[in-house]
Amino acid sequence: MTTISEMHDPLDIAEAWRMEGRDIAIATVVETWGSAPRPVGSHLVIDAEGNFEGSVSGGCVEGAVISEAVDVIASGVPKMLEFGVADETAWRVGLSCGGRISVYVERVV
């Protein structure tokens, strides 16, 4: 039997955490533009205490997503989160880091 510490897929971990009785939310990358480090469909699973597994941005916005996810767990109201540069002109001036990412956060019941 695979233990939670041996799991790599955040959705498998989410299922295991639910089986333990934890309240959780799943954050999913739904749109990217530019140099977003994680592709659409990437997941981050968060519990009510702020424990998490997975990644939606390679560390760039995880802290903000975790904080919002804890609120989503408490309220039950999903959120669409937007992070990144405001317009495409940033790429024309040669910024080495940028892009935009949209992350949908929903409570799993």
TrEMBL record:
Domain XdhC- CoxI intervals: 17-84
Listed Pfam families: XdhC_CoxI
Record protein name field: XdhC family protein
Source organism per UniProt: Rhizobium setariae
Organism phylogeny: Bacteria, Pseudomonadati, Pseudomonadota, Alphaproteobacteria, Hyphomicrobiales
